[in-house]
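Q: I'm writing up a methods section and want to include an example of the input and output format. Could you take the sequence below and give the corresponding predicted structure tokens, formatted cleanly so I can copy it straight into the document?
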Amino acid sequence: MFADFLQNITIKTAPVPIELGGTTARGVLWQASPGRFLLDLPEVARYLVEGGECVTIEPCTGILPDVVTHFARMTPLAALLYQRGMLAFHAAAVANERGAVLLAGDSGGGKSTLLMELLQRGWALLADELAIVSQDGNGGLHVIPTFSDIALWPDTLKKFGKEAEEFEHADANRLLLNLTDQRTVASQPLLAMYRLGVQSKAEISCERMAGIEHFKAVSTLLYNSHVADALLDRVIYMGYASAIVRTTPVVRLNRPRGSWSVDGLADLIEKELQ
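A: Here is the clean output for your methods example:
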């Protein structure tokens, strides 16, 4: 379920409690206590993540296993990573011969379209939706490859000449595209992080974040930052954040609203990384 990038993880199907004892934090559909995290997704499953080592799943009656797996790879996986002292970003990740970049952004910001464009240009897939960043003994930051499939909007597939009928559904709205042949299996050094957005201006704008804005961007791009606040050790987080501010540019990249500008975005990223 979590592929080869996480070792010694126990995943089992068993009853999961509705409430955790000793709850220290709570949000919409989730709660946390020391060493434990519970997510209750109505009509899908309850997920209990413990100590960064064990995930217990209680699926709802009649739910398809692929749906249970799809949701396990989202917030439950992020919770597992936070418990293990790793960072999970709400971003796609791709790599060229120099290293990896993260593509983050709100829904509709063009992340999936830009991801597809870079893959079409020969970049390798590391992750879709949730990107894992680890730190080595020398403080270097690396992006760990996760899964070989990506979830795309039907309109995005059509723009790249692919018919929606060819693909399985990832969820109610998106389709699943498997890219095993374009997935790298080796961790890659983190080169840059791009936060994508849209604007009313007719041109593409690109601006590197600096100072406190650079530092704050690290936490805002985490996968479910409220869960991260509840689970991630603050000393470990500060070490990561300091390393990113010191070594990794975080770039605000805005495209014109309502226009096809993915070629220009990809050109800009490739030029910056030459």
